[in-house]
Amino acid sequence: MPILHTVYFRLREDDDVEAKIPGCVALFNEHKGITASVVKGKFAAVCGLAAPTDAVFTHVEVLVADSHEALHAYLHGDAHLNVWIPLIKPNLEDIVVFDHDLPTPFTGVAGSQALSLLLKLRVDAEQEALASSAAMQLSLLIAGVSNVYFAPHGGGGLDKAALIDKLDWPDKSQGFTHCLTIVATGAAAIERLLRSTELKNWLTGLTPQGHAAMVSPLEPSHEVAYPIYRDLAAKHVLITGGAQGIGLAVSRAFFMQGAAVTVLDRDEGALARLRLEMASAHTYCVDVTDENAFCETLRAVRETRPTCDVLIGNAGADPRYEGLNMSLAEWEGLFRLNVSHYFLLCREMVPHMVEAGGGSIILTSSHLAWVAKPKCIAYNCTKAANIGLVRSLAEAFGDGLIRANSVAPGWTLTDRQKASVGTPADFEDCRLNSQALPLSLTPELLAQNYLYLGSSASACLQRQTLVCDMGQAKL
User: Fold this and answer.
1) Which of 97, 204, 259, 346 is at 20 to 30 A from 16, Cα to Cα?
2) Is the pTM of this model over 0.70?
3) What separation in angstroms does the CA of 63 have from each of 49, 100, 442?
């Protein structure tokens, strides 16, 4: 399992040391399975807790290791023991180390920042587990928050005691016992977090005896690295279900390319959070299963943005039923959402795309069109229908320079899936035992495939389905 290794430390000012830090970080990143950065941070007040008058720490090392073995090799390796430690030790005044297993990938986007809230707590194991669970909910409640981790001091084994003894490293932790690490999309999201009642309520339940809060930028090495598709700049991208889950990651990805993004979603709260993050995005709250309301919304979209270059049908649901134990109304309702709304979307938009000179249609299908899970019979059928629709659209409108393709994700670590379908153990079992490639499938990784299909880089692709499931479907 990947592990997040964070080190907060205070160094006396020394320009020579500062100048050598980037070279050390470059050596860290030469280690197999290691992504590292060391940056300066700034202190911040959190929910009425005044920022310390003394800067307890000046720097933070953020390191993501692919495994405990990779982190162990780094800690006991030459770059750490014989280059990094001799560099900082003469000027080191305080240091504290935290390790946390990563049930979800540690990711950010351009301009991401991390809030490190260091706490002095008296909690038992049960309280610690409850606090960790509650902390993870912050990513669901606060716009722009992508990762939340709560960890005790030390941890992870890795022969740290022997390592500290070997280095003659006295205890400089200042008594901090726990760390809350939160990754957010930028300064505005961090500010919302610092002022939020959700974070205040979380802190109130713990009553810390001491704290220190530091905000630090994340280096590009920790960002989701999207290729730049220059032809997407200023293109109009319309997406349904684009304010949550996979759709939100896709909306963000196109927004980062400079595209004009229009998002349709039935959740006004999710749309409001999206607008805080993407001010120029056009948003519409609509139920795509309501034909009249949906078609009227699409007409309103065309009045504001007459041309559509990339049309993405993504809204959908995946309810579970035992075998065929569902009513006809439930069956038809799922087809109305997962299939009929794609038909209406294309009926209302594709003729205008043809008139404007063409464009790209991308529909979200699923690997369950092939991997027929028994509790998803209706869903499996809707996703197979999506692929049939894509192939038919490609044949019918190809001469109008319309490309039609689909993305078929596997089991993806969305908030909805994590909250209602699978436990961390379930996702880990799928990753290790069902996938040919044992990497976690995230919305951000999937979004890259939508960028590719929306750009001219995929000009030769027509009526294709990209099965993006880390090799789970044995096709």
Assistant:
1) 97
2) no
3) 28, 11, 20
